[in-house]
Amino acid sequence: MRTMRGHCIGLFTLVLLLASACGSANKNNASPPGASVPPTVPAPTTSMPASVASDATSLANVHVKLTTVASGLTAPIDVAWRKGDSRMYVVEQKGQILVIGKNGRPLPKPVLTVPIASGPEQGLLSAVFSANGKKLYAQYVDPSDSLDVDEYTMRGDVAVGRRNLLSEREPYPNHNGGGLTFGPDGMLYIGLGDGGGSGDPLGNAQELSSLKGKILRIDPTPTGGSPYGIPADNPFVGRAGARREVWMYGLRNPWRFSFDRDGTIWIGDVGQDKYDEIDVASPRDAAGANWGWNLREGFHEFKGKAPDGARDPLIELSHTDGSCSVIGGYVYRGRAIPALQGAYIRGDACQPQIVATVVENGKVQSERTLGQVRHTSSFGQDPNGELYVVSYAGTVLRLDRAAP
């Protein structure tokens, strides 16, 4: 996310919530219609394992339409599904989680309401259910400016019994991250931004004693008097001065990350003034990965040379076309659009293109725009692998197969 400046425009709060460079006087945050796909720069072959590849070999035969499946929402920024329940759960930044009824409209009674700080980059940011659907986990910035991760017990359609797992004081109101997901290993992964300010002034992202600018990996089960456990194979367990929760570091503001079915992680990391990036790592080499911020932005120096051993992104996204903040998505694993199998889907907060990427032998082979959604704030994946696009303007759309 970007720091604020006086003329941040567009759909105001979304641009402030997700934008990466408000603070650069020459940055245009408008969303011009019909803009081209943001330019991408494939990483060197060493940037990711050659075994990470898409099933799709070409996007030429992909025909997609976007079907509105939910409307009447206020600032939606995440969606979730619960085992045994086909309904969609929508996270609204204003502090509520709602269930979508059969008519595509939210039911009047919220599943959960949390007290929030009301800054443009604050509020309720993400939610996920446990594998059995009995627990709900929510990530939000509370009125004291602390980033909280809470666990709730589901009682029917209502979340009750708050149990705080994590409370991390935020020094600035921006760059709070936003992302909760359970990995294939059953652990809870949590994305945190670098703590805010322009350029990570406190150096949090490279500091292993800080949780900021990281993706964390925990077992949410209470352990030994702690609200959660630390997996013994976390990469910094036993290292003096390092937080044992840290799984990856060197991130600026990971706005949405996801796991593919083979355990590969895909991260949309929002950059500063010039570049965003898509970071990808296989299960074999993900733990302990350093993505280089704040010394590097994309493939470029920011405050110095890349740290020793820092990983390259798969894709660097330039802001020169009006793009401002990457919205990380998912690898498509549904059945409705066979030709899209294995392609990674992403968006941008300021540009409307929904983009599919095919990767072969660790390199980008092709990209294609599937459609346009204004004010994209997040993506979702239902239990069947079908993908959804969340628009901050108040709707959720599903990717469906279209006739050629």
Describe this entry's structure for a reader.
With 404 residues, the protein is mostly beta strands. It has a single domain, classed as TolB, C-terminal domain (Neuraminidase). Helix content is 2%, strand content 39%. The chain has 1 helix and 27 strands. It has one helix at residues 12-18; strands at residues 40-42, 64-70, 76-82, 85-92, 96-99, 112-113, 123-129, 135-141, 146-155, 158-169, 180-182, 188-192, 214-218, 246-248, 254-259, 265-269, 275-281, 296-297, 300-301, 315-318, 326-331, 344-348, 353-360, 363-372, 376-381, 387-391, 395-401. It has a 5-stranded antiparallel β-sheet with strand order 1-20-17-16-15, with no helix packed on it. Strands 2-27-26-25 form a 4-stranded antiparallel β-sheet, with no helix packed on it. The longest helix is centred in the first third of the chain and has 7 residues, at 12-18. The two termini are 38 Å apart.
> SSE string, helix = H, strand = E?
HEEEEEEEEEEEEEEEEEEEEEEEEEEE
Tally of individual domains: 1
Helix content: under 10%
What fraction of the residues are assigned to beta strands by DSSP?
Answer: 35-45%
Name of the level-1 CATH class: Mainly Beta
Alpha plus pi helix count: 1
Class derived from helix and strand content: mainly beta
Shape: globular
Unreliable segments of 5+ consecutive residues: 1-12, 21-51
CATH superfamily: TolB, C-terminal domain
**Rg over C-alpha atoms, rounded to the nearest angstrom:** 19 Å
Strand and helix layout:
Blueprint: H1 12-18, E1 40-42, E2 64-70, E3 76-82, E4 85-92, E5 96-99, E6 112-113, E7 123-129, E8 135-141, E9 146-155, E10 158-169, E11 180-182, E12 188-192, E13 214-218, E14 246-248, E15 254-259, E16 265-269, E17 275-281, E18 296-297, E19 300-301, E20 315-318, E21 326-331, E22 344-348, E23 353-360, E24 363-372, E25 376-381, E26 387-391, E27 395-401
Antiparallel strand pairs: 1-20, 2-27, 3-4, 4-5, 5-6, 7-8, 8-9, 9-10, 11-12, 12-13, 13-14, 15-16, 16-17, 17-20, 18-19, 21-22, 22-23, 23-24, 25-26, 26-27
